Amino acid sequence: MKESFRFAFLKTIPVMLGYLFLGLAFGLLLQEAGYSFWWALLISAIVYAGSIQFVLVSFLTAGTSLPVVAVMTLLINSRHAFYGLTFIEKFKAMKSRPYMIFSLTDETYSLLCSLKVPEGMDEKKVMFLISLLDQIYWIIGSVVGAALGQVLPFDMTGIDFAMTALFVTIFVDQWREAKSHLPAVIGLISSVICLLIFGGSNFILPSLIITVTILMALQKRLEGKVENT
């Protein structure tokens, strides 16, 4: 267990740095909206949805109706439906399956996709620890941010760049470890094209659809290429 935890912790360090900072930002925004750190703890433990939590702050202050909140949450997190397809078989055999489904954020998904555990180590246990640690980082950041916001003034300029930096770090790490760079190139090209066509607010879902479709069509070729390397 100790070795599994150590391995999972080392794998999640890039996410830890990003989540602590982003959680801090969320906590500060929530506190500015008039909610204490207890709300930050509750929302990050139960909702745990990254971008939608930032949107939720605006919804709370504006008194948005629950149906609107539900629709917006569905639209913003619709990409997660594609994430789950990757791990259907692995999650079926896990006792922690409900939590694994709940905790599958963008960054956790990226880590699990590239996960290669040492021989003799329980992969499912490591997957669970990675998911749990990522949420713990987010909760800690949120609570600390809300608590600090009550006593210290903060300048929020540029704080939204942390998510971009986190994704770049994870992408570079996967690029270095991957035997084939074709999936990454396909994803990058489809993302750029969809960004130009649909704009920054709407490109994620169509780019995911295109990328998944192409990768499914090339699955046998990609698997054969990896086996031969």
From TrEMBL:
- Top-rank taxon, per record: Bacteria
Does this UniProt record's set of keywords contain Transmembrane helix?
yes
Q: Name any one Pfam family assigned in the record.
A: AzlC
Please report the record's description of how this protein sits within the membrane. Multi-pass membrane protein
**Transmembrane region positions?**
12-30, 37-60, 126-148, 154-172, 184-217
Sorted keywords for this record are: Cell membrane, Membrane, Transmembrane, Transmembrane helix, Transport
Keyword Flavoprotein attributed: no
**Secretion signal span:** none
Q: What is its main location?
A: membrane
Q: Where in the cell is it found?
A: Cell membrane
Q: Which family does it belong to?
A: Belongs to the AzlC family.
Instruction: Name the chain's protein.
Output: AzlC family ABC transporter permease
Organism field? Laedolimicola ammoniilytica
